[in-house]
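Troubleshooting log. The previous structure file for this entry was overwritten by mistake, so regenerating from the original sequence record. Sequence copied from the archived sheet and checked twice against the printout by T.R.
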Amino acid sequence: MLLKDSVIGVIGCGAMGLGIAQVASTFGHSVIILDNNASAIQKAQQNLKAGLDKLVAKQKINENKAKEILNNISFTQEINELTVCVLVIEAVVENLEVKKKIFSQLESITKETCILASNTSSLAITAIAASCRKPERVIGIHFFNPATLMPLVEVIPGIASDDSHVQICKELISGWKKVCVQVKDTPGFIVNRVARPFYSEALRIYDEGIADLADIDRAMKEIGGFKMGPFELMDMIGHDVNYVVTETVWSQFYFDPKFKPSLTQKRLMEAGFFGRKSGKGFYNYNNDFELPASKISKNEASKIFIRILCMLINEAADTLYLKIASREDIDLAMTKGVNYPKGLLKWADEIGIQQVVNQLNELRDYYEEDRYRVCPLLKKMLAANQTFW
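Regenerated output below.
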């Protein structure tokens, strides 16, 4: 069992690494953040202090708690300082070779009882663990950005991961007041797999000229109740991140056409139009941004919403069918990890599986693409007149 006062290591002091460190330190852990970039450490220290000051100003925490959190976190450029850790969470760039090198180094300097975790959003935990002599020490612990606010954490055992490590990490993270879901080690896990149609089908509709950006975004917000439309959300995430995840999931699923990336988004990434972070993406953020009014009818907006929703439901059903996660964890992941207004499997019951299957068959007949194939579980449930819940 990981005790409250045990030391947690975090590798990488970017937004995600710093957020994870703040979460752990808030719940009494001493945290050592490793980064080999001195200027990045200096910036992270400033960001941490500024973030805590804002929480105090908003009366989310008091000054004593802010000081405690700050004092619990130390920064280093020396990997050997992580030898005292019981858990190390890596949160660096999404590059398999970089991560494998880090884990190989970690294994050589940490105690054998230390659990080694990756915060990867799309890379295989088993592949990362293969760099270690004892891959059973390695597990996936995927936080969502910002880690201090987003409640969901995906816990991903690799093929060789020790079951006891999985339980220890789930108990620990639940103690940090996070919602834990357990996921099979497959590309994108739950959220980054199931959410792909939210972006890709919206891009398909836009690329074909069926509706413009604002039409699609407003359809998903005003008809579907989503907090952000797909193009707003891609701009917020950043195309340098969102496109790379899409491409990674697509390639890891042996180029399955339902995960195929969009050239439109790729061109934005290549141009450096990453979204809000660069001032321009699908929308221009150099001035005060306001989503343009929709130019289509409510009926047309409803058709766009249903098309994207049915693609999302199909992917959620496939995730359950392939035993990647439980019914409960799939719906929890989508509501707690990306703030969907409803769990997709509950949504399927609400609109009716017949409508989902009809919409997908209509799209497949029209496009003659395997992208729109119906999940076998939906076919089986429809034939038996079953529901998910």
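Residues 184 and 324 are 5 Å apart (CA to CA). Archived copy saved in two places this time.
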